[in-house]
Amino acid sequence: MKEAPKNCGNATIDYFAAIKFDGRMYIENRDSDSSGLKPGKKVGEIGYRMADDACLGYQMKDGDATLLQAGTPL
């Protein structure tokens, strides 16, 4: 069962598409040619979506994503 969103005050946070996995941050690059990429084996999944309830000052951890839903396979 998912917890209710935290009360973070009146802060508005605008997120860019990013994930953190295996100690590295991956950020969306819309100018990159990804046409040759194909799905491979699952190496993990998103455990926490920051856009749901992260407050200002939250530090991304492995398995976190800014916009992808928790449970999204990597």
Topology (SSEs and partners):
Elements: E1 18-21, E2 24-27, E3 48-49, H1 50-53, E4 64-65
Parallel strand pairs: 3-4
Antiparallel strand pairs: 1-2
Architecture overview:
The chain has 74 residues and is mostly beta strands. It has one helix and four strands. The strands form two sheets. It has a two-stranded antiparallel sheet with strand order 1-2. A two-stranded parallel sheet has the order 3-4. Helix 1 (50-53) links the parallel strand 3 and strand 4 (64-65). The radius of gyration is 14 Å and the shape is globular. The protein starts with 17 loop residues before the first strand and ends in a 9-residue tail after the last strand.
Question: What can be said about this structure in brief?
Answer:
With 74 residues, the chain is mainly beta. The chain has 1 helix and 4 strands; from the N terminus they run βββαβ. 5% of the residues lie in helices and 16% in strands.
